[in-house]
């Protein structure tokens, strides 16, 4: 039963990785990264149920919070950091 | 009782998996960045929520149920916030939505 959800989550992670590799702007990559992190939380929970060790849910709980903080940190660094060259970025015109 | 729980768990897990894959395809195939946020939002709300609810029916312990509910709560709290920050940041960086530009160009005024 959990194998179906596991395969679906893995397929979705692959699609998110493809968008992160293709994405024309940096925001597409951040969006795909955010989705990849959410799917990682689900993957950890499902693997914990498959192997019969629900302690994995603690890791998922920590990862859910770290993912959000990571996205906000990357956005702020992109806004105020030093690698945001205006001519280097295709999306902003 | 156990059969009913299994059936409910199957139903939620299958629906959640379906929405996760649909959101992933939408993230890959939609033409605009703001439309792709919609694809990501589907996987964050429907996919993650239904899969976690489906896992909740299989949890034998109340502590496991509490942890799953806390994961769901934090996901529902952080996912719209990050999507909002992402779209606002993209808008201030000058990425225009696709449809507004097309309507502006095709209008006869």
Characterise the protein shown here.
The complex is a heterodimer of chains A (93) and B (109). Chain A has 93 residues and is mainly α. Chain A contains three helices and no strands. Chain A has helices spanning 2-22, 26-50, 56-80. The radius of gyration of chain A is 16 Å and the shape is flat. Mean pLDDT of chain A is 83; it is low at 88-93. Chain B is elongated, with a radius of gyration of 19 Å. Chain B has helices spanning 2-29, 33-56, 62-92, 98-106. Chain B has one domain. Chain B is an all-alpha fold and 109 residues long. The longest helix of chain B has 31 residues, at 62-92. Helices cover 84% and strands 0% of the residues of chain B. Classes of the chains: A mainly alpha (93), B mainly alpha (109). At the A-B interface, helix 1, helix 2 and helix 3 of A face helix 1, helix 2 and helix 3 of B.
Question: What attributes characterize this protein structure?
Answer:
heterodimer, A: 93 residues, mainly alpha, 0% strand, disordered C terminus, B: 109 residues
> Termini separation of chain A (Å)?
49 Å
Radius of gyration of chain B, in Å, reads: 19 Å
How many DSSP helices of chain A? 3
> What amount of the residues of chain A lies in strands?
under 5%
* Largest two-chain interface: A-B, 49 and 51 residues
Question: Roughly how much helix do the residues of chain B carry, as a percent range?
Answer: over 70%
The portion of residues forming beta strands of chain B comes to under 5%
- The rounded Rg of chain A comes to 16 Å
Counting helices, strands and paired strands, the structural category of chain A is: mainly alpha
Q: Give the domain tally of chain A.
A: 1
Mean pLDDT of chain A: 83
Q: Tell how many strands the DSSP assignment of chain B holds.
A: 0
N to C succession of SSEs of chain B: HHHH
Question: Unreliable runs of chain B, pLDDT <50, ≥5 residues?
Answer: none
Main beta sheet of chain A: strand number and arrangement? none
The helix-and-strand class of chain B reads mainly alpha
Q: Globular, elongated, flat, extended or rod-shaped: what is the shape of chain A?
A: flat
């Amino acid at each position: 039963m959990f194998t179906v959800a596991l395969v679906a989550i893995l397929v979705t992670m692959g699609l998110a990785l493809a968008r992160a590799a293709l994405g024309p702007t940096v925001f597409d990559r951040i969006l795909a990264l955010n989705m990849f992190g959410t799917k990682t939380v689900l993957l950890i929970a499902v693997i914990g149920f498959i192997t019969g060790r629900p302690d994995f849910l603690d890791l998922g709980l920590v990862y859910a919070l770290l993912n959000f903080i990571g996205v906000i940190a990357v956005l702020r660094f992109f806004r105020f950091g030093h690698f945001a060259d205006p001519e280097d970025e295709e999306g902003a015109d | 009782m156990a059969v009913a729980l299994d059936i409910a768990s199957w139903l939620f897990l299958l629906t959640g998996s379906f929405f996760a894959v649909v959101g992933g395809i939408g993230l890959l195939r939609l033409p605009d960045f703001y439309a792709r946020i919609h694809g990501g939002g589907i996987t964050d709300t429907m996919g993650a929520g239904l899969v976690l609810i489906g896992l909740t029916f299989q949890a034998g312990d109340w502590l496991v149920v509490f942890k799953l509910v806390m994961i769901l709560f934090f996901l529902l709290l952080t996912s719209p916030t990050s999507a909002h920050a992402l779209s606002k940041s993209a808008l201030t960086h000058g990425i225009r939505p696709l449809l507004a530009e097309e309507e502006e160009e095709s209008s006869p005024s």
